[in-house]
Specification:
single chain, 74 residues, alpha/beta
Length: 74
């Protein structure tokens, strides 16, 4: 499972869900949207942010996967 948070949020909103799913045997990974982590100025334009998103998501994808997302993270 790949969890993607929403706009003006971060991966911490998914910590309870991540923990509950992990306890049930799911492999859970979380993606941090560009400019929503500890560095708030890492991408100054949409093309750069989308490139970062694609690169980060590609690194998480294995064989079969499910994405759980909300808001503009979806």
């Amino acid at each position: 499972l790949i969890l993607i948070h929403g706009m003006n949020n971060n991966q911490q909103c998914f910590f309870p869900l991540r923990d509950a799913l992990s306890e049930r045997g799911f492999e859970v990974k979380m993606l941090v949207l560009p400019n929503h982590g500890e560095k708030r100025d890492e991408h100054q334009d949409l093309d750069s942010a989308l490139g970062c998103f694609d690169q980060e998501l590609s690194a998480l994808v294995g064989d079969d996967y499910v994405v759980v997302a909300f808001s503009q993270g979806a």
